[in-house]
């Protein structure tokens, strides 16, 4: 039977086709630990959303905390190369 992986932030659900409805497991499922690649993918998605969410801040030159947000955005862009990736997220100012 086909298996489906549903990636969540902390866990991955594997269910066979008999237990799927609208691409979501509805009855029996098996929780499995996400792979390193899945964790990295989720972390990059979070990072990309954080960059989008702070785009307007970066374009506001008279904002008093602009330097802190620019530093945060630089941390976000550099984060995938950091040895702590994806375990330790940069923190927003």
Q: N- to C-terminal separation?
A: 48 Å
Radius of gyration: 18 Å
Give the mean pLDDT: 79
Strand line-up across the major sheet: 1-2-5
Q: Main β-sheet: number of strands, strand sense, barrel status?
A: 3 strands, antiparallel
Work out the count of structural domains: 2
Percentage of residues assigned to helices: 25-40%
Q: What fraction strand?
A: 15-25%
> pLDDT under 50 segments (min length 5)?
none
Q: How many beta-strand segments?
A: 5
How does this structure look, described?
The protein is of the alpha+beta class and 93 residues long. The chain has two domains: 1-34, no CATH class; 35-93. It contains three helices and five strands; from the N terminus they run E-E-E-E-E-H-H-H. A three-stranded antiparallel β-sheet has the order 1-2-5, with no helix packed on it. A two-stranded antiparallel sheet has the order 3-4. A hairpin with a 4-residue loop joins strand 1 and strand 2 (12-16). The longest helix is centred in the middle third of the chain and has 18 residues, at 36-53. The model has no long low-confidence stretch (mean pLDDT 79).
What's the SSE blueprint?
Layout: E1 3-7, E2 12-16, E3 20-21, E4 24-25, E5 30-32, H1 36-53, H2 55-58, H3 66-78
Antiparallel strand pairs: 1-2, 2-5, 3-4
């Amino acid at each position: 039977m086909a298996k489906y992986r549903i990636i969540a932030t902390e866990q991955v659900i594997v269910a066979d086709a008999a237990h799927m409805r609208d691409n979501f497991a509805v009855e029996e499922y098996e929780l499995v630990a996400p792979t390193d690649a899945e964790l990295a993918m989720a972390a990059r998605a979070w990072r990309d959303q954080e960059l989008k969410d702070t785009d307007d801040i970066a374009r506001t030159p008279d904002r008093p905390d602009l330097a802190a947000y620019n530093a945060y955005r630089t941390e976000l862009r550099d984060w995938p190369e950091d040895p702590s990736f994806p375990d330790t997220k940069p923190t927003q100012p």
